[in-house]
Design a protein that fits this description.
Blueprint lengths: L2 H20 L7 H17 L23 E3 L8 E3 L2 H14 L5 E7 L2 E8 L2 E7 L5 E3 L2 H4 L15 E8 L2 H13 L8 H9 L4 H6 L3 E7 L9 H10 L9 E3 L2 H13 L8 E8 L2 H7 L9 E5 L3 E14 L5 E12 L2 E7 L3 H7 L6 E6 L6 E5 L24 E3 L4 E3 L5 H12 L11 H9 L14 H5 L6 H13 L5 H7 L7 H11 L8 H5 L6 H25 L18 E5 L6 H10 L3 E3 L8 E4 L5 H9 L2 E4 H10 L5
Parallel strand pairs: 2-11, 19-20, 19-21, 21-22
Antiparallel strand pairs: 1-6, 3-9, 3-10, 4-5, 4-7, 7-8, 10-11, 12-13, 12-15, 13-14, 15-16, 17-18
The protein binds 2-(butylsulfanyl)adenosine.
């Protein structure tokens, strides 16, 4: 084979591969492919300098990493709000109509896998980053290259981020689990976990062996000019990516509902698991204008498919005591496969629920599983009872510490602040990834530390010493030192981690970040009104924060002294006409509205998506529509883009 022939053969192999993996249309047999592959490989071993970047040999996973580097996404990877029925859909459309006019929608399957961001530069795949927390993910380029439906080279030279879901087909998932069962390895709970786990293998050979598939659903940073997402995606598919089995644009709720029903009815025919349909505002400008809540874009929702039901038997009911003391009953059921997932537990929510549904040990029940939600018991098949079923009585003493429980009806609580389960769960939560991310504080170790009386609460973690640890079984020099080091490294943590770790009810990671961005560690001095004014905070959350601070001020102070969390530097904008003003942008402007939004935010303005009485300025460009009319009606000051620029330049409001 000479160089020209080599090039032609690489091209031919890629054509076979594209047809097979992307178009699901084999052009040849495995034998022909393999023979040519071996020839190409032989040429490459003799002519190393000629190796083409998109040669199929470059996908082979023979790279071992000793860890993955963290990498920031250029644009955040958001998640979607879920809707479940027609009523939710109508509400979402109504809400959207308040923000923009003349909506049309793009609908496609929602795949159940792990999201991945691919970055192409000069047509070459240069990096692949997992979603991570949406802002920072892990760089797994080498593993992504083993996925045959990810082109190594595309016909688009400008920088382009392509986002999609990595999945494992249902039949492949079964094969993997069968193999794992044979080898005595732990089974994957579902295809999503299997896909996510396979992507993050340090040995890319393992990733290569899992037959992962990439399905694009959107773009991140790009300079594409299509105005509609549906057209943008059509273009992406032409670059060599898998197109969904069905997708459609819809004009209204009826059309969406119809398409949703037809997708749901053929959901079994999809090779991969779907957990719903994604509906996205088709106009990119409109979607951008609608903006984001703390977690989600307002211009897209996930319309979940109805859950799948199965019959199984309740073997046992166990009790779990959470960190807030609530005792939760959980049913252990006979293992049952639902859509490729083995279900062994079902939540019973609370004791009232057990009584209301009259669930007894030994009962045959219908369980329902939807998406990633823990399965629940829908109905007891009482006609199947044979008298051997055993009623489950409300408990009066804590299954862990045996102290008397407080029975509030639906909820039964252990009030003993030093109950082992409460303390242990609080410490595990404190050390978990979205909190202080302290390595080496898993369930077993925390249980040992607690039963041996080494730690009674989270603050004791900071006074641990090596001598004491070495007295414990299983602790040698290295393990003890590692644990002390990782606790030490929690000091100086980001302030949102400090807030999140305290476990304030109703305030999760996102809420903690918002509190931290606005107040830093001084969130303890924020009033309820100030907290209510934050994006995404409602009455319940605000109240919860204020109450938590009131009751736990000493504890917070001690933790703060130990941890010395890093408050973000809140740079206050210099005085200017837009500082602390609420501004709405509409119409087309000389720059993208996103850029103008960033500029105004840097000046200390809050840029909102919709006009209300609280709006201080409406800034309008050409073709301003209903927002302009609304602003005028409400008496909101409406100014043009050039007036805005003048105001910024002169630092004053023109007459
Ligand atoms: S769009 C702007 N489209 O679902 C939001 N996501 O909860 C970006 N997913 O993290 C997501 N199929 O991993 C979108 N057709 C689809 C999807 C999809 C699956 C996943 C994705 C995302 C999560 C959103």
């Amino acid at each position: 084979m000479n160089k020209e022939e080599y090039k032609a053969n690489v091209e031919l192999l890629n054509k076979y591969s594209y047809n097979y993996y992307v178009l699901d249309n084999a052009l040849t047999t495995d034998e022909v492919y393999d023979k040519l592959y071996v020839e190409v490989e032989a040429y490459e071993s003799e002519n190393v300098d000629d190796i083409l970047i998109d040669s199929p040999t470059q996908r082979v996973g023979d790279v071992m990493s000793d860890g993955f580097t963290k990498e920031s996404h250029d644009q955040r990877m958001w998640s979607l709000e879920d809707i479940f029925n027609n009523e939710d859909l109508l509400k979402w459309i109504q809400r959207s109509k308040k923000l923009v006019d003349n909506l049309s929608f793009y609908c496609e399957p929602k795949y159940d896998g792990a999201s991945l961001n691919l970055v192409y530069e000069n047509g070459i795949l240069v990096s692949a980053i997992t979603r991570g927390d949406g802002e920072v993910g892990e760089l797994i380029t080498q593993n992504a290259k083993t996925i045959k439906s990810i082109p190594l080279k595309i016909d688009h030279l400008k920088r382009l981020e392509i986002r999609g879901e990595v999945v494992i087909y249902k039949d492949e998932f079964e094969k993997i689990n069968l193999l794992r069962a044979k080898e005595g390895e732990q089974l994957f709970a579902n295809p999503r976990n299997a896909a996510a786990g396979s992507l993050r293998q340090l040995d890319s050979k393992i990733t290569a062996s899992r037959n992962l598939v990439f399905l694009p659903y959107g773009v991140g940073q790009n300079s594409l000019t299509q105005k509609l997402l549906s057209n943008k995606m059509t273009y992406i598919y032409t670059l060599g990516f898998i197109e969904p089995m069905i997708r459609s644009t819809c004009k209204n709720a009826q059309e969406i509902e119809k398409f949703y029903n037809s997708m749901n009815s053929i959901r079994d025919r999809f090779a991969m698991m779907l957990d719903g349909m994604v509906i996205k505002v088709d106009s990119i400008a409109q979607a951008e204008e609608m903006g984001f809540t703390v977690k989600n874009p307002r211009g897209a929702v996930a319309y979940k498919f109805p859950a799948v039901e199965k019959i199984t038997k309740v073997k046992e009911i166990i009790l779990q005591v959470g960190r807030s003391g609530v005792v939760t009953p959980v049913a252990i059921v006979e293992p049952t496969a639902i859509e490729g997932v083995i279900v062994e537990r079902a939540t019973l929510h609370n004791f009232d629920e057990i009584e209301r549904k009259d669930i007894r040990i030994g009962d045959s029940v219908i369980i329902l599983r939807s998406g990633d939600v823990i399965p629940k018991i829908m109905k007891v098949l009482t006609h199947e009872r044979d008298g051997s079923e055993v009623e489950f009585k409300r408990v009066t003493s804590c299954p862990v510490c045996e102290s008397e429980l407080l029975d509030e009806g639906a909820l039964i609580k252990c009030q003993n602040l030093s109950c082992a389960a409460r303390v242990v769960n609080a410490i595990i939560y404190f050390a978990s990834k979205p909190c202080l991310n302290i390595d080496g504080l898993g369930v077993k170790i925390v249980e040992v530390l607690h039963t041996e009386g080494v730690i009674q609460n989270v603050t004791d973690l900071f006074t641990l010493n090596k001598e004491r640890l070495l007295e414990l079984e299983g602790f040698k020099e290295k393990k003890a030192q590692n644990l002390l080091d990782s606790i030490e490294s929690a000091k100086g943590c980001e302030c949102w981690r400090f807030i999140n770790a305290m476990g304030i009810e109703h305030v999760g990671e996102v809420g903690s970040k918002v509190l931290c961005e606005n107040f830093g560690v001084e969130f303890v001095t924020a009033t309820k009104e100030q907290i209510l004014a934050l994006d995404g905070f409602g009455e319940e959350m605000a109240e919860s924060v204020v109450e938590f601070v009131r009751v736990n001020s000493e504890h917070i102070e001690r933790l703060r002294e130990f941890l010395k969390p890093n408050s973000p530097v809140i740079v206050e904008a210099e005085e200017n006409p837009f500082k602390a003003k609420t501004v709405v942008l509409t119409g087309s402007m000389s720059e993208s509205r996103g850029d103008i939004k960033n500029m105004l935010e840097a000046l200390g303005a809050k840029v909102s998506g919709s006009v209300s009485k609280k709006t201080d300025f409406l800034i309008y460009g050409e073709d301003a529509g209903s927002k302009y009319d609304k602003a005028i009606k409400l008496g909101v000051e409406a100014i043009t883009e050039s007036v805005m620029r003048e105001m910024i330049l002169n630092n004053s409001i023109p007459n």
